[in-house]
Specification:
This protein is of the alpha+beta class. The protein contains three helices and eight strands. It has one domain: Alpha-D-Glucose-1,6-Bisphosphate, Chain A, domain 4. Strands 1, 2, 3, 4, 5, 6, 7 and 8 form an eight-stranded antiparallel sheet that branches.
Length: 172
């Protein structure tokens, strides 16, 4: 992650998945407007306010009715982007998406999140809930999202709702 704001967070959570497609194909999927509707297993809708590039804005309407805003702070064509995500008017988490080519036919997609949850709790008290609850649930969530993009890019088919299992934060 390249954003200076990451220094204010502790214990970012990362998930990386291999996608059997060239980096350009992965970029086409993650940079398309409304992409979460086709690739995200917990997304019911992904309305776009501004697209593409820095300053892009959209919303994620989750299956359980939760709505988050995404505000893109950096955009690196062919490589990835950084964004802030959170409830409208609420605290935000910092998220970084990065594509790395492995070879001409394979690449990785890495999503890193610096969650706002527990950031105001003293470090000595937050490490256990982070380790036992936040981190494993966030990793499961991110793994499903990465798998959804792999599915869409490799098969050309949209993911279905809860395709890789339900999630306690966002499924219905």
């Amino acid at each position: 992650m390249v954003d200076a704001r990451t220094k204010q967070f502790r214990w970012p959570v990362h998930v990386t998945g291999t996608i059997n497609a060239p980096a350009a194909d992965v970029w086409a999927a993650i940079s398309a407007p409304g992409n979460l509707e086709r690739c995200h297993p917990f997304c019911a809708a992904n309305p776009v306010q501004a697209w593409p590039g820095p300053g892009s804005r959209d919303e994620v309407h989750y299956l359980n009715g939760t709505v988050y805003e995404r505000r893109f702070t950096s955009w690196i064509d062919g490589v990835g982007y950084d964004l802030d995500i959170g409830a409208p008017g609420g605290k935000t988490s910092f998220v970084s998406w990065r594509i790395t080519p492995i070879d001409e036919r394979r690449s990785t997609l890495k999503i890193s999140v610096c969650p706002h949850l527990l950031q105001r709790v003293p470090v000595a008290l937050r490490w256990l809930p982070h380790l036992l609850s936040v981190r494993p649930r966030l990793q499961a969530y991110l793994s499903s999202v990465v798998r959804g993009f792999a599915w869409y890019v490799e098969k050309g088919e949209p993911v279905s709702r809860n395709q890789f299992g339900t999630h306690p934060w966002f499924s219905r």
